[in-house]
Amino acid sequence: MLETETHEQIEQHKIITKWHQLITSVVISSAVECSSVDLSRKRELVRRNTDKIAIVRRILFEHIGGKNVMLDCGMHMGFNDERRFPDFSFITPEGPVTSFIDCVIISHFHLDHCGALPYLTEMVGYTGPIYMTHPTKAIAPILLEDMRKIAVEKKGEGNFFTSQMIKDCMKKVIAVTLHQSLMVDSQLEIKAYYAGHVLGAAMFKVTVGSQSIVYTGDYNMTPDRHLGAAWVDKCRPDVLITESTYATTIRDSKRCRERDFLKKVTECIDRGGKVLIPVFALGRAQELCILLDTHWERMNLKTPVYFAVGLTEKANNYYKMFITWTNQNIKKTFVQRNMFDFKHIKPFDKSYIDNPGSMVVLAPPGMLHAGLSLQIFKKWAPNENNMVIMPGFCVIGTVGHKILNGAKQVEFENRQVVDVKMSVEYMSFSAHADAKGIMQLIQYCEPKSVLLVHGEAVKMEFLRDKIKQEFNLECYMPANGETCNIPTPHKLSIDVSLGLLKAENVKYNNQPPNPKRSRVIHGVLVVKDSSMCIMDVDEACKEAGINRHIIRFTSTVKLEDPAPSYKTAEKLLKIFQEKLPGWNVTFADGAISVETVLIKVEGSEDELKSVYISWTNQDEELGTNVLEILQSIGQVS
Amino acid sequence: MKLYCLSSHPNKPCYILRFKEITIMLDCGLSAQTALNFIPLPLVPSSRLANLPSWLPRESVETQLEGELKECCGRVFVDSAPEFCPPLANMVDYSEIDVILISNYSSMLALPFITEGTGFKGVVYATEPTLQIGKLFLEELVEYLEQTPNKNQAKYWKEILHLLPPPLSDSFKPRSWRQLYTLGDVKNSLARIKVVGYDEKLDVYGALKVTAVSSGYCLGSSNWVIASDYEKVAYVSGSSTLTTHPRPMDQSVLKNSNVLILTGLTQTPTANPDTMLGELCMAVAMTLRANGSVLIPCYPSGVVYDLFECLSSHLDSLNLSTIPMFFISPVADMSLGYSNILAEWLSSNKQNKVYLPEEPFPHGYLVKTGRLKHYKRIYSDGFSTDFRQPCVVFCGHPSLRFGDAVHFIEQWGSNPLHTVIFTEPDFPHMDALAPFQPLAMKAVHCPIDTSLNFTQANKLIRELKPSTLVVPQAYTQPPPAHVHRSELVIDQESRYVISITRGEVVSLAVRRHSAKVNLDPVLADHILASEVRPGTSLATITAALHVKDNQHNIKELPEDPYVPKKRRLSKGDDTLKSLRYEWGALDVDVFVRKLKQEGINDVKIEPNGSGYIIHLEGADTVIQVEDRSTHIYSEASEVSLRLKLRSILMQCLNSF
C-alpha cells in the first residue's frame, strides 16, 4: 500500500475524517420578527424554526438565529496542496466572507482546528471577530509558525501564509476566559467551558435569542496527569455538536493504559531497542513526560529519555504560566514543586539518532507526517528490536495511519522506500472522550438533539443508535457537505404585567393546595410594534387606546315568598351556595353575588318578589346557569 | 427592595440586599482597626512592652481591671489578644442569606464570622484570584495571631468605656468585638466559595442574574451587577481607573442601573498614588545611601507587587542593585507564585508577556537573581544567614500589632538611620506607631491607595447615570481630617442620593412593571390576534401558568378528561378559554337594521342622555345603549329572544 490515494479514498476520507472544522447553519425567525408581524401569520413562522446545519469540507459552519458562526478553522494534515485549506467559497460562493460570518471561534490550538486561521484572515480577507482562550492564543502562533517552517522551508511549498501573517492574524484574536458570557453583538452570545483535551481547550456555547448550541471541539471527560475533565453546566442546548473520535471505544481505566504503556516501553529497552513516541510538542507530550519521569524516578531507571528540543522548554513554560488550566493536583502543588521541571528527561539532539543502545525519544509531530519524528522513524523502522508507539489518532494519508494499518513498507516522495520491521503499537492516549465520556457529556448538558462530527462513519452510526436508545434524542451525523435540518422548538419570551402575575399569585395562594389543578393566567396579549405583553383587559384597552364595550344582561324572575326580602335573599344565598360549590358566593349590601353575577331581591312582604339577575356578556354561561337555578326554584314554589 | 448596612467602614463594606425575595450579602469586610487599641504581639518577648506601666482610671475601684490596660507615651492600650469588629450580627439572620458576593480579597476577611456556626446555608461567589489571594490574607492573619498568642482575655475595660481616655473611649460597641477565627474556620468557610469568572452570568434561584465585572482595583477584583428581567442593581466596591497591574475596570455593564451602590473609595483622598510612589522611592534611596534599612509594612498581595517592580528598577538606576529586598510572610511564596499564573486577570501589558512566554511580574526574575528573597518567618531556615543590612524589608502586618513587622520596629526603632514607610492606607500611621513611641527611626507616610478618589467617583457616577445612588454617609461630607475640602464629597445635586450608615436599613423604590414569561410555541400557534389599529393587535389568552425555579412558562390549558362537561362549568377554565371582549361603540342604525333582518320589527328608539333606549314593543324588553356599554333588560322567560339579541349585538361589535 503506497502513498498515492485513489479518488475513492479521498472521497471517503472527506466523509470520515476531521470534521471539527465544519460549518453548520440554522435559519430561525427570531422572536422579534414574530412579534412584529400579525400573529395569525406567526403560525407558519414558528413551523419554519429549524436549524439548518450545512457541513462543508473541514469547516463547521453554524447558522443560528440568522447568525453565522464559524466553529474552528483547521487545516488538513494529509494534503500538501490547496486541499489542505478549507474551501471558503462553499459558504459564500461570491462576495466577501466577512459580511457573511459573524464570528470565528477556535476551540483549541491543534492545527486541525486553527491551522487555516491565518489563511482565512490574511489571504481570504476575513476581518470579523475571532475568539479563543488565552492559552490557545499564546500557543497557537507557535504551532502555526512551526508548521509554516516545515511546509515552506523544508517542503518548499508556495502559496502559504508568512510569519508576519501569523502575527497579524493573532493580533486580531480576542481572548476569552472560561464561563465568561461574551456578547459578539446585541443578539449573539458565546460562552466557553473547560474541555480538558489540551491546555486551553474549550467547548463553546453559542446562543441567539432562545436558541443555543454547544460545540465541544475535542474534549476529554477523564482527568489525566496534567489536565482536568471537561465540564459543562445543564444549559440544555438545542443541539450538542460533539466530536466522536472514539465513538465505540470504551477505554479501560487510565491506570491500566498507563501500565500497558510503561510495560511496552520497558520491554523494548530491555531488549536493547529504541522507542520512538511521536507526539505533538504540546499537550499529550507533557502528560507522557510526567508519566515517564515519575516511572524512571520510582524504578531508578538509567536508560536515557529524550524530548526533542525546540518547542519543549517553551512549551513547559506555557504550562507553568497557565497552570490554572491544569488539574487540581498540579495547581495545588505548583508553588512547592513544578510538575513540568522534569528530572530524567533530557533534550534530544539529532546526532543521538545513531547512538547505540536503548533510548526513549519523544518527538513531534504526532502523526509521523513530517519533521523530526518522521526522520527518526526512517532510521529506526528497519530494526525489529525498535518500537514506535503512536499515542494518538492519525489522519488518513499520514505515515502514522499507514503503519497503524499494518503497512510493512512506506514509500516517500523521493521514491525512498522504508521497510517497517519495528513493532508498531497504538496507545489510545490522545485525550478524546470515549463513548462513555460522550454519553456523560450528554447527561451533563441535556441537549434537545445531538450532532456527531469527526469519526468513522460505522462507529458513529453505532453511537448514534446508542444515543437515540438511551436518551431518546434525535441524533444526526451529516456527511461532509451535507446540510442538516434540525427542528428546534422556539420559545417566545414575552412580558406579563406584574399586576396580573401578582393577582394570580394571590388567588393561587388563597386556594387550598391542589397539585392537580393547574394555575391559570387570563389576560390579553397586546402586540404593539415589536413588543408583546400580556396584561389585564382594562390595561390592554388603555395600552391599545380603545374603549371596551360592556354588554350587560339583566333578567327578572318572579318568586312567591311571603317574607321580608332580606329573608328571601338569605334563602337564595343558601341555595346558591349548595348548588354552586367551588364558586365564590357572597352577600353584601342586600345583593348576592356569584362571582361577578349579581342577584338582587325586590318587593315588600307578602308580595311577589322580583329577583333581578345581572351579568356581563363574559359571564354568559354562569349567568344563564344562575338564571336556570332561580327559575327552577320559582317553578317548585 | 431593601438595603441593610452592617459595616461602619466604607472600605471594609458589608451590606445585605433584599430583592425579589432573595437575600444577598454584598461583601463581608472586617475592619482590623480595632486591633490598634491592643498591645502589639512581639515575636521575641519584649521587656519594653512587658514593662509598660499599668493604667487605671482615677475614679475606678474595679479591681478586676487590674492588668487589662497599659500606658505608652500617653496612650492607653488593652493588654489582651486583639479583637476585631465583625459585621453587625443582629440585623439579618445569617441563615437566611442565599448568596454572598465578594468584590475583592480585602473585603472578605469577615467571611468565617458569617458562614461558620451561624446556620449559613447559602453560596459564596468570588473570582479565582479573590479566593486564592483571600485565602492568603486569611491564613496570614490567623498565623500571625497564632504564632504570638496573648493569653489575656481582657473584658472589664469594656464596662467602663466612659472612664477611659480617647481614642479607646470612642470604641464602637466593643462588647460585640470578637477574637479571630481559627484556621479550621477559614478552611471550612473558603470551601463554600464557588469560583466565578468575569462576565459569567450566575443564576440565583431563577429570580436574579448576578455577574461579576472587572473593577481594576486588584487581582480578580470585581464589581457586581444584580439584575432581574427589567431591573438592575450595580454594586461598585473598590474600583480603580488607574493603570496598575490588574485588568482595567469595565464600566459599560454598570450603566443605567436602577440602583448604584458605591463604596470603597480612596481612604487617602488628598494623596496622589503616583506622587506617593515617587516619594517612597526617594525615601528608600535616601535611607539606603545613609546606610540605613527600610521597613515597609504591607499585606501579602496587592500594591506590594508594584513596589517590587518600581523599587527594583529605581534602585538599579541609582546603582543600588546590590541592596537585597526581603519579603517576609507566611504566604510569601504562594503570593509570588500565584501572581504569576493569573495572567487572565492582569492588565493587557502584563498579559502580553505571557504570550512570549515570560512571567507577567518581574518578581519571579528578581527571586531567581537573588534580588528579592522571600521567607515565611524571620526565624525560617536561611533567613539569618542571608540577612544583611542595609536592606528593604517588606512584611506584615500593616497595623504593627502582630506579624514580623513588630520585630523590625522593636529592633530598629531606636536607630535614626532606619526608616519605616507606610504605604497601606488601612491604618493611620501615627496610631500604628503609638505603642512604639518614643521612636528614633524615621517614619514616612506614603499611602498608596489606587481606589477611586472623589473626582473620579463623581465622574463615574455621571457616566453611569443610575436612577438612585446609595453611598455610605461618610461620603456625603468632607472627611474629618479635611473638613474644609468641600470637593471631597459625592455630588448630590441633580441626582437621587441615599446615604446609609451602619445599622441602617433603607428601602429602595424600584418600580417594577412587568416580568418575562416564556410562551409555549404550541400555544403561540393557536393564538389569533385581532388588529385594533395599525400595528396593534390584541388577543385574549387563557392559559396554564407553570412556575418553576422562579421562571414562568405559559402553556395551553390541559384538557381534563375526568371532569364531565356540566361540572367543568364550575371550574371556569373552559369558559375562559373561548372568552372574548367587545370594544368600540355600537352603531345603533346598523344594530336596528340587523334586528329587522332577524324579524324583530317592532322597535322604538328614543334618545336618552348620551345614548339611546330601544324598546322592543312585543316583548317586555328594553335595550339601553351607551357609548361604552349596552344593557339588555328582559324577562327571564324570554330566553330565546335574549340569546338572539345577544348574537346580533355581538355581530355589530368588534371584539378581541
TrEMBL record, chain A:
Taxonomy, superkingdom: Eukaryota
Residue ranges constituting the Beta-Casp domain according to the UniProt record: 285-403
Entry-linked Pfam families: Beta-Casp, IntS11_C, Lactamase_B_6, RMMBL
GO biological process: RNA 3'-end processing; snRNA processing
InterPro entries xrefs: Beta_Casp (IPR022712), INTS11-like_MBL-fold (IPR041897), IntS11_C (IPR048662), MBL (IPR050698), Metallo-B-lactamas (IPR001279), RibonucZ/Hydroxyglut_hydro (IPR036866), RMMBL (IPR011108)
Required cofactor(s): Zn(2+)
Entry's Gene Ontology cellular component terms: cytoplasm; nucleus
A GO term, aspect molecular function: metal ion binding
Domain (Metallo-beta-lactamase) ranges: 55-250
Subcellular location: Cytoplasm; Nucleus
Swiss-Prot/TrEMBL keywords: Cytoplasm, Hydrolase, Metal-binding, Nucleus, Zinc
Family: Belongs to the metallo-beta-lactamase superfamily. RNA-metabolizing metallo-beta-lactamase-like family. INTS11 subfamily.
Name listed for the protein in its UniProt record: Integrator complex subunit 11
Gene source species: Apolygus lucorum (Small green plant bug)
TrEMBL record, chain B:
SMART domains registered for this protein in UniProt: Beta-Casp
Predominant location category: cytoplasm
Location(s) in or outside the cell: Cytoplasm; Nucleus
Source superkingdom: Eukaryota
Keywords, in A-Z order: Cytoplasm, Nucleus
One GO BP: snRNA 3'-end processing
InterPro entries per UniProt: Beta_Casp, Integrator_9su, IntS9-like_C, Metallo-B-lactamas, RibonucZ/Hydroxyglut_hydro
Annotated family: Belongs to the metallo-beta-lactamase superfamily. RNA-metabolizing metallo-beta-lactamase-like family. INTS9 subfamily.
The protein's name in its UniProt record: Uncharacterized protein
Organism: Apolygus lucorum (Small green plant bug)
